[in-house]
Please model this.
Amino acid sequence: MSEPEGMTEMEYRQLGGSSLKVSAISLGSRGFGSKDVRVETCETVVRKAIDLGVNFFDTADVYGDGQAEEFLARSLAGIPRDAYVLATKGGSERPEPGKEVQNGDPAFLRKSLEASLRRLKTDYIDLYQLHNPDPAVPFSYTAEAFTRFIEEGKVRYAGVSNMDREELEEWLSLIPDTVSIQLSYSLLDRSAVDAVFSPDHNLQVSLIPWAPLFAGFLVNPPPLEAEKRSGFFSMLTAEFVENAHRVSSLVKEMASDYGVGPSAIALAYVLKRPKVATVPVGTTDPAHLIENLRALEVRLSPGDLERLEEAASQVPEPEILTVMEVSNTLNRGMVAVLPIGVKLKVPEPVNPGDRIEVNLWNARVRRQYR
Model:
């Protein structure tokens, strides 16, 4: 498969305070963990990515229970190790199907890192990221484990994911040389990034956005009617879907004007955000990869950026709400465990019989009531 003539050359950006230069568009490998994907399919898209200048590959130990790491390693076989930047994540486990639990215990992280190194067939990880903060384990313990991994040469740089500003500041006090944070960021979800990278705080870490196309919503939006939506989209509120559709329509209109696909417009917007080092796109299709890379040739005009900003500002924060009844007393800061396994700290004391409403999208308590 050949790329379009005149395709813009890859752009490379500094990753935090590290010595690493990473491709502005990178390849995420969550799809490599699908039970339906073949390793040959992964090899094809990885080789195409390398041909087009992609040098950053992001994965995680829980993607397909390790399959994504294994398939990525096989896809990179024969490529010089210093020709690409390898990023993976640890700190989450799946004790049973349907449950993903944070685990920041140093012993667990040690076991996870060693397993990732074996699956990835490498002696070191360029960027090892804490997948999710574990409120049941003090950051000092988790950060000490990461520091040891770096001292041993098994990890070059530390990164984190899905932290709020307070959590990130605490983590940086322990590992000031942390180079990146992964957060959900797209035209449909800007709240977490806006809160962490607020104008009054000059963080020296890079941003690696996940879900830049909001699970494909911006390219192929689901039906407006709730009864016709399925999976993740079926859990979103009607208000969110209605406003998100308006953004998607605007993205498609601009894509036509610029002569690219909708994904290129959506990704071009994300690439304009200050502090963004690289945007991982999750695909196993070389054609989709090429279309995503066309974001590099899009130069959004000030007027178009303003139109996108205005449309995005009307979209409420994504909410996937669940309610759980607390069976025992929890003081402020204590940890509650949701039925799906997610652990979170309660902001206010909770008594037996009280209910907690949780937004599963960001694993935060939305409100507490009796």
